[in-house]
Amino acid sequence: MARRRQIYEGKAKVLFEGPEPGTLVQYFKDDATAFNNKKRGTITGKGVLNNRISEYLMVRLNEIGVFTHFVRRLNMREQLVREVEIIPVEVVVRNVVAGSLATRLGMAEGTALPRSIIEYYYKNDELDDPMVSEEHITAFGWATPQELDEIMSVALRINDFLTGLFLGTGIRLVDFKLEFGRLWEGEQMRIVLADEISPDSCRLWDIKTNEKMDKDRFRRDLGRVEEAYQEVARRLGILPESGPRDMQGPKVMQ
Predict the structure, then answer these.
(1) How are beta strands 23-28 and 202-206 bridged, if at all?
(2) Which of 128, 145, 153, 222 has its CA 20 to 30 A from that of 191?
(3) 113-139: per-residue pLDDT in tens?
(4) Among residues 220, 179, 154, which one has the least CA distance to residue 89?
(5) DSSP label at 3?
């Protein structure tokens, strides 16, 4: 097998040159990090589960007209994606008080927000991904006002859809992080959803018990991290009782 050229390695994924121009292969690792890489570890099988969960959610979003970089899953740990120009801003959508919001505002975790809130963070590990305003984003040219309007609109639409999807499985979507990129097709540019959507990037709580079913179990040393990720996959209907090796799903998405 010919060696593939590595394009980028992040905390949870590796990007390789794709088989066709304008494509990349996204590989999901078992590596786990928290607090901007200050805490590190391994969650066995996480890459397999996140690959499958993210595929499922990206396909569902595409079905309602949300454009994504996802093309198809290649194998247990890899998916083919379109190469995009990543906008260096993390978009966080919050429905319930948790994490840094609880710390910053001195509010109790689990408090329902009066409406969904969108926050922006500058993607820079060396600076610990500082929170920024729309003024920062447009002033420094990370995104135009028009792009930011579109990103906010799409983020809220994604939130509405995923909130209902997870609710149907007995899971509360507390908050989640999105990344967007510019997809160039000749002279035409389109804003698309990039990166992943998985228990790594979402806070997911059991609707009845508020038990955490996401990476907070790793962050807070709660244990049973692998089981929580598997339970999310099971509730979404994409992990049979026989385990990750038998996971099946959509093969291609155009």
Answers:
(1) unpaired
(2) 128
(3) 999 999 999 999 899 999 999 999 999
(4) 179
(5) P
Helix/strand/coil percentages in the chain, nearest 5:
30, 35, 35
Beta bridge partners of 206: 171
In terms of domains, do 100 and 197 share one?
yes
The one-letter amino acid code at 234 reads: R
C-alpha–C-alpha distance, residues 160 and 56, integer Å: 17
Look at residue 15 and tell me if it is in a domain: yes
Q: Which tens digits make up the pLDDT trace of 161-170?
A: 999 999 999 9
pLDDT of 67-100, one tens digit each?
Answer: 999 999 999 999 999 999 999 999 999 999 999 9
The Cα–Cα gap between 53 and 28 comes to: 11
Q: Is 225 helix (H, G, I), strand (E, B) or coil?
A: helix
One-character DSSP codes across 49-101: HHHHHHHHHHHHHHHTT--BSEEEE-SSSEEEEE--EE-SEEEEEEEE--HHH
Number of structural domains the chain divides into = 2
